[in-house]
Design a protein that fits this description.
Strand content: 5-15%
Number of domains: 3
Distance between the termini: 143 Å
Largest sheet: 7 strands, mixed
Strand order of the largest sheet: 13-24-23-16-22-21-18
Radius of gyration: 39 Å
Oligomer: single chain
CATH architecture of the largest domain: Up-down Bundle
Helix content: 55-70%
Number of strands: 24
CATH superfamily of the largest domain: ABC transporter type 1, transmembrane domain
C-alpha cells in the first residue's frame, strides 16, 4: 500500500510539474512580468522602509529644534488638502469649458479611432499591392488628419483659455483679500507669517493654473480614451481579460511608484520659497540702490544675494538628482516595461483564437489590418490608464503651489477679520465721531509686542491743534498707525470721523515725511487717492491746479516735466523737498477736517514751513503734527509728549498759552527723568524742553561775504551738454547679434557645459540606436505572427525587457542632463551678471542711470526662463540631427534615392509652408516678458510703499492700477492664444499628421517594388518585417524633420528672452566701463595744491543723467576742519552734487580731487536721509558696510573672543552717544536679527546712521538731511560729537540751528546753473 501511495504521489507530482511546465510554456511572458512585479514589490518595500526610517529621524530632529524657532508660521497642512480646497473653487469656474473639452476629447478620440482603422486598411492595401484601394484610403486619411489637427488645436486653445480664466479668477480672489482692510500692509509689516506674498501671487498662481490645466486636459483625454478603447477592445476580442491585465498592471505599478515616491511636494515648496527670497533680495537692492551705493555696501548686499543663489542652486541640484533616480524607477515600470507588456497583449491574441490569421494571403492581410488597429487600441489604452495612474508627482508639484497660495489667502482672511499671528482678536474698539479725535484708555503695542503708550486719554476737538513729540521710537507714528487701523488697538477706545472703516483718507488726511507719488500726471498726484476715469477728464481745472502748485512754489514743474498731461515717475524726478511740497498741495486740494502731519516739512525751509502752517489755518483744518521743530510750537494748542515706555503727558502749546495764560494744567502722567539707561523719560523731557525753550531761527543762508559765484551763462557751451544716460542705453542690434552675446557667455566661458553637451550627444545617439533596434524588433514580431513561431516571439519578449531597462536609464538621463545643463547655464549666466552688476556701483548705474527699472526681473525670472528654454532646446536640436543622420542611411538602404528625394522634398516644402504662416513669436514673447515683469514690479512697489499707501487709503486705487496691468497681461496672453491656435493647426498638420501619410506613400512604393512572392509565407513575413521597419524608419525621419521645423517657432519665442537678457548684459558692461574710465576723468587737471586732506571741485558741471544742468563750472575747496553747508531750494541739485562726488553720477566736465591714503570709508563717508538697514544683526547695522570679521579685525586685542568683546564695548559707547542704548536690551542684544527698516523708526534709523559715521570716523562726512527726524537737542548733540571727533562735515539741511557748525555756505540758487559760495558769519558777529 505504501508503495502504491508513493507511486500515486509520484504520479501526482509529475502531473503537477507537467501542468506547471505547460503553464510556464504557454504563459512565459506573463510569468516574466509577474516575477518582475514581485521583485519590484520587494524592492519597493525595502526602499519604503528606508524612507520611513529617514522621515522619522528628520521628524525627531525637527521636534528637538522646534523650540528655537521664533518667527510665527502660517498654519501647516497637507499639500493635497490645499489642492483639494482650491479645486472646489476652480472646477465650478471651469463649468461648461470642461464639458466642451470633454466633447472635443470625444471627437478627438473618434478621429483617432478612425485614423487607426485607416492605417490598418492602408497597411492591408500596401501588403496586397492594391493601388486604387490604397489611394482611396490615403485620401480619406489626409482629410481626417487635417480635421484631427483642427480638433487638437481647438482643444488646446480652449485649454489655454481655461488656464487664463483660472489665473484671472484666482488672482482676483487673492487680490480681493489682499486689498481688503489694508491686508497688503499688515501681511508683511504686522503679521509676517507669510513671506514674499508678491511671489505667491505672480509666480505660484500661474504655475498652479498652468499645471492644473495641463492635468485636466490630460485627464479628460485619457478618461475618454480609457472608456472608449475598453469598450472597443471588449467588442472585438470578446473578452475583458486584456483590459483587466492592463488595469492590474498599470495601477499595480502606479501603487508601487507612489509608495516609493519621495516627498516632492516639500521639495517643490522649498524651491519656490528659495526662488522668492532670491528675487526679493534683488528687488530690495534695486529699491535701495542709492543708499547702498553711497555706503559702498555692495560687497555685503552682494554676498547675501550670492549666498542665497548658492542655496537655491544647491537645493535644485538635490531636487534634480532625486527626480532622476525616481524617474528611472518610474519610467521602467510605467512606460518601458509597460511597452513590453503591450507587445505581449498586441501580438499574443493572434497566435490563437478567432484573431489567428487564416492560411491564405487575404487572411493574413486582414490579420495585418486588424493587428494595426489592435496595436493602436492597446497603446491608447495603456497610455490613457498609465497617465491616470502616474500623476502623483505632478499632483505633488501642484500641491506645493496650492499650499503656498492657500496659506497666503487664509492668512489674509484672518488679518482682514482682525486676528493677529497668535489668532487673537483686537480687544480695543474704534468708534465714529463727528468733529473730534479721541483716545480713551488706549494702549499702543507694536507687532513685536512692545508697549509704547499706556492708558492714553486725549481729546482733539475740531480747531485744536495737537503737536506730538518724544524721542525717536517713542510711538509717535505708531499712535497714528493705530488711529488709521494699520495696527490693531490692543485695548481702550478710539473715536474718529469715519469710525473703523474711515481709515485716514476721508475727513482725516495723512501727510507723511515722504509722500507717496504715483506714476501719472500732476493732476493724478494732487487728487490721490481719488482716481479719475478716462472719460472723466480733468478733476481739477487747469487754473486751480496751477494755483495749488504756486502756493507751494512748484508751478515750474509744469514746464520742466513737459506739461500738465505728461506721465512721469515723480518719485524718481522729484527731490524730497519737492515731494513734501507736492504732499502739502495735495492736502490743500482735499481740505480735510483733520490733517496728520508726520514730519512732512523736514525737507523745506523754515519760511516755507511757516507758510504751510498759515495756509492750513486758513483752510480751517485741525492739525495733528509730529515734529521736532521749535518753530511749530506757535501753531499748536496742545503738546503730547511720549517716552516710548508707556508714559505720556500733555502740555499747553504756544498758541493756547498766548490765548489763555492762566488756564489750569492739562492731565497726564508726568515724564520722569531716570538714571536707568533703559528708561527713556530723560530723553523725552530733554526733547520737550528743546521744543519749549527754542524759538525759530533765521534761515541758514543769511549773512556772509561772497567768496565765489557761478560764471556767466554760455549758450554755446551750456546748451551743448549731452545727457550721460544716452551712453548707457542698449544698442539696436539684430537678432543674431543678440544671440551671439548670450551664446558667448554660455559657451565661451563654461567648459563644463561642453561636457554636458557631449553627454547629451552620446545619450541621444544611444537612444537613436536603441530606437532602431526596437523598430527592427517590432517588425520581427509581426513576421513571427505570420509564421506562427511562438518560441521565437517569446525570445523577443525577453530582449524587449532588456531594451525597456536601457530606455528607462537613457530617457531620464537625457532629461536630467538637460535640466543640469539648464541649471549650469543659469549659474554661469547669473555669475556673469552678478560679476558686473555687483561690482562697484554698477547696480545703481543700471537701475537708476540707465533706467532699467526691471533689472531684478531680468536677472532672476528672465534668466531662469531663458536657460530652461535653451537647455530644453538642445536635445530638440541634437536628437533630430542624429535621427536624420542615422535613419536616412537606413531609408536609403531600403528605398534608394527615390525615398530620400521624397523625404527631403517634403521637409523643404513643409518648412517653407510653415515659415510662411509663422507669426513674430519673438516680439510676442518679449512683450509677455515685459508685462509679467511689470505686474511683478507693481506688486513689489506696493509692498515697498505699503505704509504710505495704507495711510492715504490708497489701497483701492493701487489695486485698480495693479488690475489694469494684470488685465493688460491677460489680454496679451489671450491674443497670443488666438494667434497660436491658427498657427498650431498648420504646425500639427505639417509636422505630425501629414508625415504619416508620406510614410504610407513610401511604404506602398516599397511594397510595389519588392520582388517577393506573396504565396510564400516566409516571403510574406519578410515583406511585412521590411514594411514595418520602413514605416518606423520613415516615421523617425519625419518626427526628426518635424522637430526641426518646430525649431523655427521655438527660436522665435526664445528671441524675446534673449533680447531682454542680452540688453541687460550690455547695459551692465557699459556701466562697468563707465566706472573704469570715471576715475581717470576725476583725476584730470593739475594735482591738488591743498594737500591730501581736502576735497576739491575744479570747473565741475553738475548735470543730471537726463542732461539738465543744475550747477555750471562749480569750483569749491573743502579743507579738513572747515565744514561746508549746502543750501538751496528743492530740486536745485544739492543731493545731485553729492551723487557726483560719490561717483554715482558721471563727471561730464572738470575734475574732482578727493583725499588720498587710508581706506575708502575712512576718507569720505556718506549718510543719506534714510540710512539703509541691511539684513543681519543689530551689530551689523552699526558697522555697515563692513562684515563682523572685518570690524573685529580693527580692534587691538589678540584673540577673536577678545576682539569681539572690544568691538561690542565700543559699539555700546557709540549707542550711548546717539541715545540708542535702549535698543540693545530691547531687541535682545547685539546678535539680535530683525527687519530693521520696519523695526526702527525713521529717527532711530537716522541716529543709527550717525552711529555708523562715528564708528568709521572718516575725515569727511557727507550728511544729506540725515538728522531732520531727530529732536533739536539730539541733532545738536550729534553735530558737536562729530566736531569732537574731528570729522569735517558737508551738510545738506534746512535747519538754521546747524549754521554754527559750518564755516562756508554753498548756495545752489535756482537749479538752472547759478551758485554762490559765502562765508558764514558767526552768531556773535
Amino acid at each position: 500500500m505504501s508503495s502504491t501511495g508513493g507511486q500515486l504521489n509520484a504520479k501526482q507530482r509529475a502531473a503537477l510539474l507537467g501542468q506547471a511546465r505547460a503553464l510556464l510554456t504557454h504563459r512565459r511572458a506573463g510569468t516574466v512580468a509577474a516575477l518582475l512585479l514581485l521583485s519590484g514589490g520587494c524592492y519597493t518595500y525595502y526602499l519604503r522602509s528606508l524612507t520611513v526610517r529617514q522621515e522619522r529621524r528628520i521628524k525627531k530632529l525637527s521636534n528637538e529644534t522646534a523650540g528655537d524657532l521664533k518667527k510665527p508660521k502660517g498654519k501647516k497642512g497637507k499639500s493635497g488638502d490645499a489642492l483639494h480646497k482650491l479645486l472646489k473653487y476652480l472646477l465650478p469656474i471651469a463649468g461648461k469649458r470642461i464639458l466642451l473639452l470633454l466633447g472635443l476629447a470625444i471627437v478627438r478620440t473618434a478621429f483617432s479611432n478612425r485614423l487607426a482603422r485607416m492605417q490598418g486598411f492602408m497597411f492591408r492595401a500596401a501588403f496586397l499591392r492594391k493601388v486604387p484601394l490604397f489611394i482611396r484610403n490615403f485620401t480619406e486619411n489626409v482629410i481626417l488628419c487635417l480635421l484631427a489637427s483642427c480638433v487638437e488645436s481647438t482643444a488646446n486653445r480652449f485649454l489655454e483659455q481655461l488656464k487664463l480664466k483660472w489665473r484671472s479668477m484666482l488672482t482676483e480672489r487673492v487680490h480681493k483679500q489682499y486689498f481688503k482692510q489694508m491686508t497688503y500692509y499688515k501681511l508683511s509689516y504686522v503679521d509676517r507669517r507669510v513671506d514674499n506674498p508678491e511671489q505667491r501671487i505672480c509666480e505660484d498662481i500661474p504655475k498652479l493654473c498652468n499645471g492644473l490645466g495641463d492635468l485636466v486636459g490630460e485627464w479628460t483625454k485619457c478618461a475618454v480614451d480609457a472608456v472608449f478603447y475598453t469598450w472597443v477592445l471588449r467588442s472585438y476580442t470578446r473578452t475583458n481579460k486584456y483590459t483587466a491585465i492592463i488595469i492590474a498592471y498599470v495601477f499595480g505599478a502606479g501603487a508601487m511608484t507612489v509608495s516609493v515616491s519621495p516627498n516632492f511636494g516639500k521639495l517643490f515648496k522649498t524651491q519656490a520659497s528659495n526662488e522668492g527670497t532670491y528675487r526679493q533680495l534683488h528687488a530690495r537692492l534695486r529699491t535701495n540702490a542709492e543708499p547702498v551705493a553711497f555706503y559702498r555696501g555692495v560687497e555685503k548686499e552682494g554676498g547675501l544675494i550670492v549666498s542665497k543663489f548658492k542655496d537655491l542652486v544647491k537645493h535644485q541640484t538635490k531636487l534634480l538628482n532625486t527626480q532622476w533616480r525616481f524617474a528611472m524607477w518610474q519610467d521602467f515600470h510605467t512606460k518601458y516595461l509597460a511597452a513590453t507588456m503591450a507587445v505581449v497583449l498586441i501580438i499574443g491574441p493572434f497566435f490563437a483564437g478567432h484573431l489567428r490569421p487564416a492560411e491564405t494571403t487575404r487572411g493574413r492581410a486582414s490579420m495585418l489590418a486588424n493587428m494595426r488597429y489592435h496595436t493602436a487600441v492597446i497603446i491608447s489604452l495603456f497610455t490613457a490608464l498609465g497617465s491616470l495612474a502616474s500623476s502623483s508627482r505632478k499632483l505633488m508639484r501642484l500641491g506645493a503651489h496650492a499650499e503656498r497660495i492657500l496659506e497666503l489667502e487664509d492668512t489674509a482672511k484672518e488679518i482682514s477679520a482682525g486676528k493677529d499671528a497668535r489668532d487673537q482678536d483686537a480687544r480695543g474698539s474704534i468708534q465714529a465721531a463727528d468733529d473730534e479725535i479721541a483716545f480713551e484708555n488706549a494702549m499702543v503695542v507694536t507687532p513685536a509686542d512692545a508697549t509704547l503708550v499706556k492708558d492714553l486719554t486725549l481729546r482733539v476737538a475740531s480747531g485744536t491743534n495737537l503737536l506730538v513729540t518724544g524721542p525717536n521710537g517713542s510711538g509717535k507714528s505708531s499712535l497714528f498707525r493705530v488711529l488709521g487701523g494699520l495696527w490693531p488697538l490692543t485695548s481702550g477706545v478710539v473715536k474718529k470721523p469715519g469710525g473703523p472703516e474711515g481709515g485716514l483718507a476721508h475727513e482725516i488726511f495723512y501727510v507723511p515725511q515722504r509722500p507717496y507719488v504715483t506714476m501719472g500726471t500732476l493732476q493724478d498726484q494732487l487728487i490721490y487717492p481719488v482716481e479719475r476715469s478716462a472719460s472723466q477728464g480733468d478733476v481739477i481745472p487747469e487754473r486751480e491746479l496751477r494755483r495749488l502748485l504756486s502756493e507751494v512754489d512748484l508751478e515750474y514743474l509744469v514746464e520742466r516735466e513737459g506739461g500738465l498731461d505728461a506721465v512721469v515717475d515723480w518719485g524718481a524726478q522729484l527731490s524730497l523737498g519737492e515731494q513734501q511740497r507736492l504732499g502739502m498741495a495735495r492736502l490743500f486740494y482735499h481740505r480735510p477736517k483733520f490733517a496728520i502731519l508726520d514730519e512732512c516739512t523736514s525737507g523745506v525751509t523754515v519760511d516755507m514751513e511757516e507758510r504751510f502752517c498759515q495756509r492750513v489755518k486758513q483752510l480751517g483744518c485741525t492739525c495733528v503734527t509730529i515734529s521736532h521743530r521749535p518753530a511749530l510750537m506757535a501753531f499748536h494748542d496742545v503738546v503730547l509728549a511720549l517716552d516710548g515706555e508707556g508714559a505720556w503727558s500733555l502740555h499747553r502749546g504756544a498758541r493756547a498759552a498766548s490765548q489763555a495764560p492762566s488756564a489750569p494744567p492739562l492731565p497726564g502722567a508726568p515724564l520722569a527723568a531716570s538714571n536707568n539707561a533703559k528708561a527713556r523719560g530723560a530723553d523725552a523731557l530733554e526733547c520737550l524742553e528743546g521744543l519749549q525753550n527754542q524759538g525759530p531761527s533765521k534761515a541758514a543762508a543769511a549773512g556772509g561775504r561772497l567768496i565765489a559765484k557761478a560764471p556767466p551763462f554760455d549758450p554755446a557751451r551750456d546748451l551743448a551738454i549731452c545727457p550721460p544716460n544716452l551712453a548707457l542705453q542698449p544698442r539696436q542690434l539684430s537678432t543674431w547679434q543678440r544671440w551671439k552675446i548670450i551664446l558667448r557667455e554660455l559657451l565661451g566661458r563654461n567648459r563644463g557645459s561642453l561636457s554636458q553637451l557631449s553627454t547629451i550627444l552620446i545619450v541621444v545617439s544611444l537612444r537613436s540606436l536603441l530606437q532602431d533596434r526596437m523598430a527592427a524588433l517590432n517588425g520581427r514580431t509581426v513576421e513571427y505572427v505570420l509564421k506562427q513561431d511562438k518560441q521565437a516571439f517569446i525570445r523577443l519578449i525577453g530582449l524587449s525587457v532588456f531594451q525597456a531597462l536601457a530606455s528607462a536609464v537613457l530617457a531620464p538621463s537625457l532629461r536630467h542632463v538637460a535640466d543640469s545643463l539648464s541649471l549650469s547655464w543659469r549659474r554661469q549666466l547669473t555669475a556673469v551678471a552678478h560679476k558686473r552688476y555687483l561690482k562697484r556701483i554698477n547696480f545703481y548705474t543700471v537701475s537708476q542711470l540707465a533706467g532699467m527699472q526691471d533689472v531684478d526681473q531680468r536677472l532672476t525670472r528672465d534668466v531662469e526662463r531663458l536657460c530652461d528654454d535653451l537647455a530644453a532646446l538642445i536635445p530638440s536640436m541634437v536628437k533630430p540631427v542624429v535621427d536624420i543622420a542615422w535613419f536616412s542611411v537606413q531609408l536609403y538602404q531600403l528605398t534608394g534615392r527615390r525615398g530620400m528625394a521624397i523625404l527631403y522634398l517634403y521637409a523643404f516644402l513643409g518648412f517653407g509652408a510653415l515659415s510662411a504662416v509663422t507669426p513674430d513669436f519673438g516680439a510676442l514673447a518679449k512683450n509677455e516678458y515685459f508685462l509679467e515683469g511689470a505686474f511683478r514690479n507693481v506688486h513689489t512697489r506696493l509692498r515697498t510703499h505699503a505704509e504710505s499707501i495704507a495711510f492715504f487709503g490708497g489701497g483701492e486705487r493701487e489695486g485698480k492700477s495693479i488690475r489694469v496691468i494684470f488685465n493688460n497681461l491677460l489680454a496679451h496672453l489671450r491674443a497670443v492664444v488666438d494667434i497660436r491656435w491658427l498657427y498650431s493647426v498648420a504646425d500639427d498638420f505639417f509636422t505630425k499628421q501629414l508625415p504619416h501619410n508620406v510614410t504610407w506613400g513610401l511604404t506602398v512604393l516599397y511594397a510595389l517594388d519588392a520582388a517577393k512572392d506573396l504565396a510564400d509565407v516566409s516571403a510574406q513575413g519578410q515583406l511585412v518585417n521590411d514594411m514595418r521597419y520602413l514605416a518606423s524608419v520613415v516615421t523617425q525621419c519625419f518626427t526628426a524633420f518635424g522637430e526641426l521645423l518646430a525649431l523655427n517657432k521655438r527660436f522665435a519665442e526664445l528671441t524675446g528672452g534673449v533680447t531682454r537678457v542680452s540688453e541687460m548684459l550690455e547695459v551692465m558692461d557699459k556701466a562697468d566701463r563707465l566706472h573704469v574710465e570715471e576715475p581717470m576723468r576725476r583725476s584730470m587737471g593739475e594735482a591738488s595744491t591743498s594737500g591730501a586732506s581736502s576735497i576739491r571741485f575744479d570747473e565741475v558741471d553738475v548735470v543730471t543723467p537726463t542732461g539738465k544742468l543744475l550747477a555750471r563750472r562749480l569750483s569749491l575747496l573743502i579743507e579738513q576742519g572747515h565744514s561746508v553747508l549746502v543750501t538751496g531750494p528743492n530740486g536745485s541739485g544739492k543731493s545731485s552734487l553729492f551723487r557726483i562726488l560719490g561717483g554715482l553720477w558721471p563727471l561730464t566736465s572738470g575734475s574732482i580731487h578727493q583725499p588720498d591714503g587710508a581706506e575708502a570709508d575712512c576718507r569720505i563717508f556718506y549718510v543719506p536721509q534714510k540710512p539703509y538697514t541691511t539684513i543681519g544683526t543689530l551689530r551689523e547695522q552699526v558697522i555697515y558696510p563692513l562684515t563682523v570679521e572685518a570690524a573685529a579685525a580693527r580692534e587691538s586685542a589678540a584673540e577673536t573672543t577678545a576682539r569681539m568683546q572690544a568691538l561690542d564695548s565700543r559699539l555700546d559707547g557709540l549707542m550711548a552717544v546717539v541715545r540708542l542704548q535702549y535698543l540693545v536690551s530691547r531687541e535682545g542684544g547685539w546678535g539680535a536679527q530683525a527687519e530693521w527698516g520696519e523695526t526702527l523708526s525713521l529717527g532711530e534709523q537716522q541716529r543709527m546712521g550717525m552711529a555708523r559715521l562715528f564708528f568709521h570716523n572718516p575725515r569727511f562726512g557727507v550728511l544729506d538731511e540725515c538728522t531732520n527726524a531727530t529732536s533739536v537737542d539730539i541733532e545738536e548733540h550729534l553735530y558737536r560729537h562729530a566736531a569732537k571727533l574731528g570729522i569735517t562735515l558737508v551738510t545738506i539741511t534746512q535747519r538754521a540751528a546747524l549754521l554754527k557748525y559750518h564755516s562756508v555756505e554753498l548756495r545752489l540758487v535756482d537749479g538752472e546753473g547759478d551758485w554762490q559760495l559765502r562765508a558764514i558769519v558767526p552768531e556773535d558777529s
